[in-house]
Amino acid sequence: MKTSSIVILVAIAAAIGTLLMYSVNFSTYDTIQSARAKQGRYVHLIARLDRSKPIQYDALKDPNYLSFYAIDSLGATTQVIYHNTEPEEFEHSDRIVLKGQMKGNVFQCDEILMKCPSKYKDDKAQLQKTVSQQ
Amino acid sequence: MKFEGEHLFPGQLGHFFVLLALVTSLLSLTAYITASVKTDEAAKRAWIRFARGAFLIQFGALVTVFITIYYICSHHYFEYLYAYKHASRDLEPKYLLACIWEGQEGSFLLWSLWQGVLGTLLILTAKKREASIMSVLATAQVMLILMIIGIYFGDTRIGSSPFVLTRNELQGPIFGMSNYLSYIQDGVGLNVLLRNYWMVIHPPVLFLGFASTIVPVGFAYSSLISGNFGDWVKPALPWTLLSCTILGTGIMMGGKWAYESLSFGGYWAWDPVENASFVPWLILVAGLHAMLIYNATSNALRASFLFIILGYFFVLYSTFLTRTGILGDTSVHAFTEAGLAMNVLILVYVAVVSVPLLVLLFTRYPRIPAPRQEENISAREFWMFIGSLILFLSALFIISITSLPVYNKIFGTNYAEPPDREFAYNKVLVLIAFLLGLLTGLSQYLKYRKTPASYLWRKTVLPLVLAAAFTLAMIFFYPITYIKKGPGFLVAIYLALFGSVFSALANGLYLKSVLKNNLKAGGAAIAHFGFALMITGMLISSANKNVISDNRKTGLFFQFGKDPTGREENDPVENLTLVKNVPTQMGPYVVTYVSDSAARERNRVFYKIHFKKINPATGADDENFYLNEDVYEMKGSGLSSHPGGRHYLSHDLFTYISSASIRNPVDDTARFVTHEMHIGDTSFYSRGYVVLREIEKNPDSGRFHFSHSDTALAADLIVHARDSSVYKAVPALYVSDNALKFIDDTLVRENLYLRLEGLSNDRKFRIGIKESDALTDFITLKAYVFPYIALVWAGLLIMVAGFIISIARRVKAANFITALCVIGVLAGLFYMFFLANS
Q1: Is B422 on the interface with A (CB under 8 A)?
Q2: Is B659 close to A23, i.e. CB distance below 8 A?
């Protein structure tokens, strides 16, 4: 290979490497408490739906406003506002991952990822529950 | 205890055949390895004959296993956990097939079946390489069969058998009864999200794609151990092409599926599961180009080995990512946590097949010939190599971000994905698209070894100028509207558009002028043309994707500044509420939720939505159509939606129901209060009053179409609400089958139900007024317009055609066979991508 070829290869590799570095902008997994300490920072909360508190969604008033409470494994709770409809099987979810940021005492959420018992059939406990209910 | 009603024979049969498959696969592996080290020709042939027999028996056994599972599922033998988990009585036969590969065991079985098919083809065609290629394939086969073996070594269960019994796996009071089966009325069934014909087609194609990547690796291995390092490339080329074609098609089928039937709002979301199949494809394509370079110039042999083997390594790595549950929280598709033993087994599989290959490559690497001659910068091979390198590096970039959960596991960190995942990938890949566009366009006009500059310039100036003109025209007449990521990204999108349009033009012109329409030699140009078209379609359809249900555009529900919910300007407002029978403006359409009806399947509801587009100049209807959408209502308030859509040449209109009112008539305790009225009389309700304007006999206008032979009356009512709005309502009654039927009218805004109940004795009309507290029927709709998305699918089809032509040329197929293959495959794909779901 000519030196010029090698130079071009190295340049391309370097360019892509730079882009890579520049794009590494990872978020973090947090608890509700640690997210509160990071006001305005984009985080992933691992929590579950707090079923003892109301889920507020009224499509006739505003179809893009869902408010509910999430509780994490340490017992902390927070109100969550999600500007969208209730995701599929939301109320059955075991565990939810909330992507967004804490603003004051409210978690402003852009995306909800869920683990649902029905999607996760290999969850034995759930299957046992289903089979016993028949 | 003796259990009643069980069918244990199919399971025992199936289990026997799994064991038979394992034993014979081990035998064929041993025999092939022995054959590949034997130098004595006669002994070698004898071992190969034995190995072939064992392999074919193994293949037959796997087919039997597959049939047995299908039998169990289609007969609803819920005593088997697999049938209980994946099948249900309301499943159509095609979904019974799909429920086999919904489960982990079924998908590994599918993979091993395809390897059986490929192995049989190799037995027929591989000649002197058979023993070494098949040793690689048989190793993978042993590992895959281990995944479904389900036998205990001590306390550890190896693999997971599809034939385990429900009562052995689950605990519950009913399993203490001998007639427990009579309590299991139905299986859990196929996840409603997956009830789609793509679920029937996509997994087999994708798994054939995955399975086929082992074939070029087998060829590479045969040369690594024989020491004739270069002689595998030529015979392996058609296989590599085939693998690229099938894997590419499978990936895009997944995209089409996500696009049209899952409510993800697009065909590609950079989800880890999607990436896991895309990365091997990229590396495989890099390998393909390296092989082509070697074939033409004897350069890039080391790269060919490296890319082909790494491509397969990433197939296995992606299996590890998607099947062990390690992706967990990062993917919407991710499969389940399979249990520790299974995860270890998958890890062992990755290691057993790929590590020895990589070690072998590493030790032989110095001996692989690499010519030291000068490479000219105007040579085609140089730029092709750059192209492969870019593909390879972009694959590494994608997988390094996707592997985040693996780093977290290894280093105990808790990093999560970047805030805007799609942008994190797109901002790099959009530049890759630009570079690839330039390279795939220019390198067609480069010659191997050296290209005269004047030739290159003469040939490429036209497509360059045209592409630039096209891009400029777009800026002025159809600008990219994706501006939320700033001007830098906007420029990058235009650059990528320029690159891909240039590539499409350059390859098209190349076919026309250089090859003089010799399609047979033009496989590469056609494939690149299709690829460029696909990228162009992707850029336009994603960058100018328009959420027409966005409330900011419809002007509904949205108040700037004083929003009580604390909404900020850039919070999404993408769902639009449609109240039944209330026409609502949505983008260019007036949309009305007309009706809903229950379907045959449990909990499935069809919604009929009317769309009307009025020409602002003439006032006439430009378009007038209904879309049918359906949802599965889940327990509670959730639902799972099947979108509706309408395809145009220039764009797709795509809508899905994101939530719906819960209809529960029992809750509605309000009753009709009867008011007797003459024409012109007024009656009051709590929030206003109703005037009876007229009674019409057998009305034939508006909602009603009665004829003279009917007995029907309609009351023309005017409702004056307290907020001084005025509504018209026309309830009706008619006689049918000797019974009186009512067609009530509803004023949803007033929660008012109106009924014409009949005539009173003193010739007054009886008008029933009901004020309801119950929710009115409504749905919320999300609607997108994807412009020029047809280019994506058309580009894919053209690319596939190019691949097939190249394969046919490499295997020296007769012209009519080539034509037949191209037409057959294209017809099939055209049906799937353009007709089947519209």
Answers
A1: no
A2: no
Instruction: Give the largest Cα separation in chain B, rounded.
Output: 113
Three-state SS for B126? Answer: coil
A59–B780 CB contact, under 8 Å: yes
Q: Which of A2, A84, A99 sits opposite B374 (nearest CB)?
A: A2
**Is residue B742 packed enough to be buried (19+ CB in 10 Å), middle (13-18) or exposed (0-12)?**
middle
Higher per-residue pLDDT: A116 or B661: B661
The amino acid at residue B795 is G
Among candidates B85, B186, B565 on the partner chain, residue whose Cβ is nearest the Cβ of A65: B565
Which of B668-673's residues contact partners 24+ apart within 8 Å by CB, and which partners? B668/B772, B668/B773, B668/B774, B670/B770, B670/B771, B670/B772, B670/B773, B670/B774, B671/B770, B672/B753, B672/B755, B672/B757, B672/B768, B672/B769, B672/B770, B673/B768, B673/B769, B673/B770
The string of pLDDT tens digits covering residues A12-50 is: 777 766 666 666 678 888 899 999 998 988 999 988 888
State how far residue A26 is from chain B, nearest Cα, in angstroms. Answer: 4
Is A27–B417 a contact, with Cβ atoms under 8 angstroms apart? yes
> Would you call B306 helix, strand, or coil by DSSP?
helix
H helices of A1-123, in order, are: 3-23, 32-37
Question: CB B693: neighbour CB atoms within 10 A?
Answer: 14
CA distance readout (Å), B358 to B88, B103, B217, B367: 45, 31, 11, 15
Q: Is the dihedral angle over the CA atoms B285, B290, B294, B296 positive or is it negative?
A: positive
User: Could you give the percent of chain B with pLDDT greater than 90?
Assistant: 44
Predicted-assembly ipTM surpassing the 0.90 threshold:
no
Average pLDDT over residues B785-791: 93
Contact B209, B250 (CB under 8 A): yes
Residue B369: CB atoms within 10 A of its CB come to 12
User: Sign of the C-alpha dihedral, residues B453, B458, B463, B464?
Assistant: positive
Give the sign of the dihedral formed by CA B693, CA B695, CA B701, CA B705.
positive
Q: Which of B173, B418, B427 is nearest residue A27 as measured by Cβ atoms?
A: B418
Q: How far apart are the C-alpha atoms of B365 and B533, rounded to whole Å?
A: 38
Option in B382, B424, B576 nearest A25 (CB): B424
| Interchain CB distance below 8 Å, A131 and B374 | no
Residue of B172, B638, B661 lying closest to A128 (CB–CB): B172
Nearest Cα of chain B lies from the Cα of A2 at a distance, in angstroms, of: 6
Single-letter residue type at B15: H
What is d(CA B439, CA B455) in angstroms, rounded to the nearest whole number? 16
Tell which of A45, A64, A101 to mutate to test the B interface (max B CBs under 10 Å): A64
Place of tokens 């639902």: B639
**A-contacting residues in B 171-190 (Cβ below 8 Å):** 171-174, 183-186, 188
Per-position DSSP letters for B521-568, written without gaps between them: GGHHHHHHHHHHHHHHHHHHHHHT-EETT-HHHHT-S--SS--TT---
Enter the pTM of the model.
0.85
Angstrom distance (rounded) from CA B548 to CA B788? 16
Copy the structure tokens of residue B809: 């040329």
| Residue found by looking up tokens 């040449």 in the block | B649
Tell whether the model's pLDDT for residue B838 goes beyond 70.
no
> Within an 8 Å CB–CB cutoff, is residue B416 touching chain A?
yes
Q: Is the pLDDT of residue B388 over 50?
A: yes
And the tokens for B598?
């229950």
Task: Decide if B71 contacts B9 (C-beta within 8 A).
Answer: no
d(CA A65, nearest CA chain B) in Å: 8
Give dist(CA B181, CA B174) in Å, integer: 8
Helix (H, G, I), strand (E, B) or coil at B378: coil
Whether A26 sits inside 8 A of B184 (CB atoms) is no
Q: B576 to chain A, minimum CA–CA distance in Å?
A: 6
